[in-house]
Batch of 2 targets.
Target 1
Amino acid sequence: MPSLELAQDRVEELRREIRRHDYQYYVLDNPLVSDAEYDRLMRELVALETEHPRLVVPDSPTQRVGGQPLAGFQSVGHPVALLSLDNAFEAAELRDFDRRVQQLAGGAVDYVVEPKIDGLTVVLAYENGSFIQAATRGDGLTGEDVTQNVRTIRLMPLALGEHDSRLAVRGEVFMPKSAFARLNEERDSRGEAPFANPRNAAAGSIRQLDPRITAGRTLGIFLYQVLVGGSREVATQAETLAWLRQTGFSVQQEWRHCRDIDEVIAYCASWADRRHDLAYEIDGLVVKVNSLELQGRLGSTSKSPRWAIAFKFPAEQVVTRIQDIIVRVGRTGVLTPTAILEPVQVSGATVSRATLHNEDMIRAKDIRIGDYVLLQRAGDVIPEVVSVFEERRSGSERIFEMPKTCPECGGKVVRLEGEAANRCTSITCPAQLKEMFLHFVSRAAMDIEGMGPALVNQLVETGMVQDVADLYGLSKEQLTSLERMGDKSAENILAAIDKSRNRGLAPLIFALGIRFVGTRASEILADRYRGMDALAAAADEQLTQIPEIGPKIAASIVDYFRNEQARQLLAKLSRAGVLMEQAQREPVAAGESPLAGKQFVLTGTLSSLARGEAENLIRGLGGKVSSSVSKKTDYLVAGSDPGSKYGKAVGLAVPILDEEAFKRLVTAHQE
Ligand code: IVH
């Protein structure tokens, strides 16, 4: 047993570490360590405090339930304290839990086991069957009012069949893995930092001060507990889940009623591999006493109920070695250090690279070339280095130095004040040019089909293009002189380039790759300024007055258009016949959302929105989405390659909106 003095030092160190990670996690949504590592720190602290109760202080991280409410949202007091769960990591701990429960219950107990959704806890309140409020968990007693954001979630019932005067339910908002991957791709293309895992992405989406941003994200929700109200006939957790579903809530279907702890343990074990097949992340299972009456009798400690426990999966971590650290140069010139690993299998995939994000991250974890490291896939998606095995160092490891010059072009590298990133400052850097090209031709930008990385590399390396405007001057002869380029392909590419001239103002703004200006900001700007010249002349103060355009975006826009090179590029694009104006928009009556109560059906592929995003937008504005066309359908939104719904809509004289018309309808209201 460590002496009190030694223990005290360690306890203080642990508290400092945990507080730092809490801040990274709850406030910045940017954790530096894995959940497993965080749990280890917390467990060590709990163990030391249990051993030396004199060291317990009221502000120790072990003494509070969760994060602090953020400024910017109204505070909401919860109808009952939202407790957290104790964790079990092994079967033996589940047996201990069962023993404690049986002792207090005075006999055999049955359980319900549910997946533990790795998301953000919310409490939904309904009055007389209508949704009135959603709150985050906050510190367990008071949370943040996120009603408008939660309202935009698909599967969120706004009106219930059941008309209890007051009903409060608890559940979890999450981001499906596919939506998470797509969101991070988008963020990456805008030069923004990716979310570390789907849970942080969900939290970041729900804690948006502007609900329209939430509406553009694909989120799901599962409910599992009735806090206030509900049916008197419900006597068990199994019945609660059935009742919630029948009342109109979205309920996770993968739960199991287990007659005893052996069945619980077997069911938990069966999930070790299966968890990866789900469309969303789960980080364990929750074991709950089935009888609600017994739950009441068992009660809770100050932090967690005695009738439930979380069985946490071990994070799938593996050991590998860093063979090298290379540096990639992105479109905005950011140098990203990437670890080249001895290939290993982790969470069902072979991993041979892991991003190290930036210099600070490498220093904080003291990662060196040649180190043995612990690796995991964050949110089972992005591979990350968790920690280094210092004790396995041989002395031959090398400390990584960020290059002072760009590894691609030799340009000067600088680190701007207040930024973690190092950037290449050269405006002719070929690596940046290639990335810039790929962004310019990408689907959400100018949508030039057939322009992949191989072609872009050749165009840049042969010097055929020096800026993106040069694309519009390419000839068939030039293209066919390139490798693997026949007559037909060259013609198709030229046709695609030509078509992009009329792509429109919003995609063009996005295509320019102005820092922080994503698809949504581009649409807002196009709608407001109607032409590139007007946007180029906009002053900072004017831009920041536009909803959703913050000071960072505004400054970046002003900066961009101040640059002589950018102005020349735009003039060149204009001379090449690229449309610099926005088509006139149809006026929409002010007042209520034109989508309210209207029934929409979608068909075909939309070029600038995923299907789910379009559905979210409709629902966020009070519209309904249905899967088939009928007489009740108000609009059919038809993308490219529409299906049979198109013919049916024509037959029933249902108004058909193409993508542009749909976007006009939506943005008209959103302004
Ligand atoms: S029951 C009083 N069931 O996991 C017990 N929690 O610390 C209420 N979670 O923040 C929790 N899925 O929000 C329960 N099926 C599930 C869950 C679940 C995810 C969250 C919960 C809490 C955390 C446990």
Target 2
Amino acid sequence: MKEMNFLALAGGVGGAKLTDGLVRAVGAEQVTVIVNTADDFTLYGLHISPDVDTVMYTLAGVANSETGWGLADDTWENFGMFERYGSAPWFRLGDRDLATHLLRTEMMSGGATLSEVTRRLARRLKVPTLILPMSNDPVHTLIDTDKGALPFQEYFVKYHWQPIVRGLIYEGAAEAEPSPSVLRRIETADTIVICPSNPYLSIDPILALHSIHDALLNATAPIIAVTPIIGGEAVKGPAAKLMKELGVEPSAVEVARHYADFINGFVLDERDAGLRQAIEAMGVGVLVTDTLMTSSDDRARLACEIVTFADQLRPEKLGGCLLDQPKPSGSPQ
Ligand code: GDP
């Protein structure tokens, strides 16, 4: 098989799952992932980078697959102590997870950038895949809601994404530079995958960096987006609710339309097969398949299908997936 440069754009859970599938499908070193950093925030002086950590922990095989965030088998002793002090935080950090935030913050206080820190931490966790935070500059998603303007984590964690959303602002995005090598990776990629992440909360902050959006418009590689919406519902989280509140029908068609200016292919869930023509009418190729990733084999199978689909979207074939026959879902991981 030829060397391949797979590039994924990802938020947290949905992005991490498909990136993990791509790593299994084509090999860890053939994949680079650009991750949203507009959810980053500071708690007790610590730099928390939730999507970067979800991707890093998932690729390291140490993620908590039940919560979708944090580390597997973590403990919460620090939370009990906060409670004793009468100041229980609304954002909980696991005891082991704390080590990541403490180290990151210390390294950044010493002058390292977020991308340098991510590279060091990922190396220690034996993750060979290059994880690129979208930017080393601060970008913050601000959510305009019926309860006023809320920083992302307050909307998402403190208020459990219940406030009605009126609009979204990606503060700092206009001035932010992509982190080093992001633009080059887009230019030199063979295949670009927009993971089934939340289009508004996870992918749009990345696209809000104009040079990234321009690079995608000019990319020579096929760009394939995977739907996060199945049967009008999000698999997890606020994507469908948010679309309704923004006056957009929550459907895979609208997700495809959202990305239509730069994608060549769209992966539609088989439960929505009837929407195929509406997406093809946008001039976008469509792969219809099961996009639900409930096991690690599901992730690999979906990624393999995307590898094959990408080959159909370009003149020259690059070769298939490393896993010829992924095991059926439900088999031991
Ligand atoms: P977050 O930052 O942790 O919210 O994660 P993302 O934005 O990366 O992912 C959230 C999105 O992933 C949601 O809109 C989900 O609908 C979608 N998602 C999660 N799991 C799956 C899955 O197995 N299949 C598909 N198609 N979408 C998924």
